[in-house]
Specification:
By secondary structure, this protein is of the alpha+beta class. It is built from 15 helices and 39 strands. About 45% of the residues are buried.
């Protein structure tokens, strides 16, 4: 072909079937520049594949059509689509083979009554009679069945034996295994590689917490769905800690390219640290594009894992940060006690290096991660490329892309668990309303507003110091409570409507008004102390103002484009989040122009950042994203993110959050009724509990992070906790 004249219909049809021979390259070049011919070629493929799909689902073919397809498809990869599917199994019609291994095959299937598709794994008939293989398959079924749901772990729907065939039914999602991703793209960007390993570590942490060791972590057993979720597959080698798992003493089980040294000696004795090693090898592969010890036979690879050090990541990828390379080296330490001791610890170390495009991931030992960051999948080959490869015997077109299994989220109900350690008392035993809570900076005083009065009490012993009636604020919402830095005045902001609010200044020694009432012609969204005697107030009209006690106008103010949702103050710096989804940092002088010292990135949703924390000395600001359920951190000096810490489970939504002002702690409550306190500086959980019934409506934490209050919607009780040091 000369690339100018259009091929005729027969030539295009032959090309579409991969039978055009020497003309294929010329036709392919022509189709890249001729949309008319490309559409005709694709139409030929569409018609043929439609016939193939019909053939796979029914036998309503004419003999003439069968002979025509046999002639057309002879010698092409498309013929694989016409291979006879096995008979239905337990009500599932098998539609398409998705993959095969040494012991079985996985099919895309459809339930004949429910018309719902699933993945069905069937043990090869020749292995069903082998007691060892049957035992391994039974272990896989039982293990998957015992695991609690987790978004990064495959979940079984059904398992049984039908007409001598052992099978396992799992949910079906589109995606590809990581080994295929590596073949198509080569070494991955650092952030994406760390993200994938981080998700896998969370899956391994989940099975570790339930007493399992996977023993075969590798790219082939990690499926990346089209939505960016990594799924841990193939639990056939899983061992329950404390059992022998059916493995002979001294047997090495796993895959040599990723096998921990101790696993090469005796697979029965390994613990979760072997999975950490294998995941380290997997991350090595994702970053470098090659396994740790390539071009060796099996025994040489196993020996190398025991006594040799692989080529350092930095030598193969100079662009990989030293700290990331160090994490890989630590995970691949020869001695188990020198590795990360749990997959969760590995996840915590990886989190700061993951991509932050969606700022959606936990960074620590998290039992259930939050929504995953969608990763761009590799560009799929064009249909013409796929057909050429199929004709050459390189890929079976009808085999489809690799698929995994998706978790059906289940909303956990309230469980009657014992009260968490550190519980002190219920603040409202008579179930009176609690609409706002605040601690003094030293944590010694606790204030709460019930809708018409404020009560201030001694935090430690509960003694009421005073109670003052302030009138109802029922038509909208309370704007917030805050003690001045010296604790002498309590500021109570009450909204009578979105356009009208009042500020009460209460002397905390006498319990009387410390200054005349301040009236504002806008609603108040946030209040925070600044220094020892000033107060920062954020309004729904966008004004951020610095106020003196009793003032009728702010001493200084600046105007933001949207309502000021949350405020933090530290030294001579003020941080705020606005309803436009942006973080801003200002000097305490609050210049009248809206220009900030730092104007942070936009989040996914407006009115999203509901709590703010600031460390002015370190130049860092953190904020809680309600829609993502995460704590996001930025280095103001460098203008770069440094933290994305997932705070709630993916099947729950964040309902309340508060950040300590002088301690790196944050408390959050979710729709499932769970409360968690995090140390964001170390990306670790301080404590978790679920003492109340119903979703969490309110949380508060003292400046030093030693005290916390929670309120649940259903039981209406506000609980006070003394947090671990």
């Amino acid at each position: 072909m000369n690339g100018v004249a259009c091929p005729d219909s027969d030539q295009l049809r032959a090309f579409a079937l991969g039978t055009s021979g020497a003309d294929a390259d010329g036709i392919a070049s022509h189709l890249d520049s001729c949309s008319k011919c490309a559409a005709e070629a694709d139409g030929a493929v569409d018609g043929l594949l439609a016939d193939v799909r019909i053939a796979a689902a029914s036998a309503r073919w004419t003999p003439e059509r069968v002979r025509e397809l046999e002639q057309l498809l002879a010698g092409t990869g498309l013929w694989l689509a016409l291979e006879e599917m096995p008979a239905p199994v337990a009500g599932y019609e098998l539609l398409e083979e998705l993959g095969a291994g040494g012991f079985g095959k996985v099919y895309r299937a459809r339930h004949t009554l429910l018309a719902r598709e699933a993945a069905v794994k069937i043990l090869h008939p020749q292995w069903c009679a082998d007691p060892r293989v049957r035992a391994r398959f039974v272990i896989e079924m039982a293990t998957i069945g015992r695991l609690r749901p987790h978004p990064n772990v495959v979940v079984a729907l059904h398992a049984d034996e039908d007409a001598g065939r052992m099978f396992l039914v799992m949910e079906l999602v589109k995606g590809q295994p990581l080994d295929q991703l590596l073949r198509e793209r080569g070494p991955l960007p650092v952030e994406q590689a760390c993200e994938l390993a981080w998700q896998a570590a969370n899956a391994l942490q989940h099975i570790h917490e339930q007493g399992f060791v996977h023993r075969d972590v590798k790219p082939q057993n990690l499926m990346l769905t089209d939505g960016g979720v990594v799924k841990l597959l193939d639990l056939g080698l899983v061992r329950v800690v404390g059992t022998q798992g059916g493995t002979n003493s001294g047997a090495a089980m796993g895959t040599p390219d990723y096998m921990a040294p101790e696993q090469t000696r005796d697979a029965r004795s390994v613990d979760t640290r072997a999975d950490v090693y294998s995941l380290g090898c997997t991350l090595y592969h994702l970053l470098t594009g090659r396994v740790p010890f390539p071009d060796r036979h099996v025994l040489a690879k196993m020996m190398a894992h025991c006594i040799e050090t692989p080529t350092p990541v930095a030598e193969l990828r100079p662009d990989v940060p030293y700290s990331v390379a160090a994490l890989v080296a630590r995970a691949m330490a020869k001695e188990p006690n020198k590795r990360f001791q749990t997959p969760g610890a590995f996840a915590a170390a990886l989190a700061p290096f993951c991509g932050h495009a969606s700022a959606s991931k936990p960074a620590s030992v998290v039992k259930t991660p939050s929504k995953p960051m969608p990763l761009p999948l590799p560009n799929k080959p064009s249909r013409r490329q796929a057909i050429k490869w199929a004709a050459a015997g390189l890929v079976p077109i009808a085999a489809g892309a690799g698929l995994g299994w998706w978790w059906q989220h289940r909303k956990p109900g309230h469980s009657e668990e014992p009260l968490a350690s550190g519980f002190l008392r219920v603040l409202n035993p008579d179930r009176e309303a609690v609409r706002a809570v605040a601690f003094s900076k030293d944590g010694q005083k606790l204030a709460r507003y019930d809708g018409h009065a404020v009560r201030v009490e001694d935090t430690a012993n509960g003694q009421t110091l005073f109670r003052i009636e302030l009138g109802d604020a029922t038509t909208w919402s309370p704007g917030g409570l805050a003690f001045t830095g010296d604790g002498a005045v309590l500021v109570v902001a009450l909204n009578d409507s979105p356009e009208r609010s009042r500020i009460h200044w209460v002397n905390t020694t006498t319990g009387q008004a410390a200054a005349p009432l301040t009236l504002l012609a806008s609603g108040v969204l946030s209040v925070a102390a600044s220094g020892s005697r000033d107060i920062v107030i954020g309004e729904n009209g966008g004004r951020l103002g610095l106020w003196a006690i009793g003032a009728q106008t702010p001493t200084r103010s600046t105007l933001q484009p949207a309502g000021v949702r949350a405020i933090a103050s530290c030294n001579d710096t003020i941080a705020s989040s606005a309803d436009d989804g942006r973080m801003r940092v200002y000097p305490a002088t609050l210049p009248p122009s809206p220009e900030a010292v730092w104007d942070g990135p936009v989040t996914a949703q407006p009115a999203d950042l509901v709590a703010v924390g600031l460390n002015a000395d370190a130049g860092r600001v953190v904020a809680v994203s309600r829609t993502e359920g995460s704590l996001l951190g930025w280095d103001v000096k460098r203008g770069q993110p440094f933290l994305a810490l997932g705070l709630v489970a993916p099947d729950a939504t964040l309902r309340a959050a508060a950040i300590a002002s002088t301690s790196p702690r944050v408390v959050v409550g979710d729709s499932a009724g769970s409360v968690a306190v995090w140390d964001w500086q170390h990306s670790t959980t301080v404590v978790r509990y679920r003492d109340g019934a119903g979703p969490v409506a309110l949380v508060a934490i003292s400046a030093d992070g030693r005290w916390a209050v929670t309120l649940h919607e259903t039981d209406g009780q506000a609980r006070l906790y003394r947090l671990p040091e």
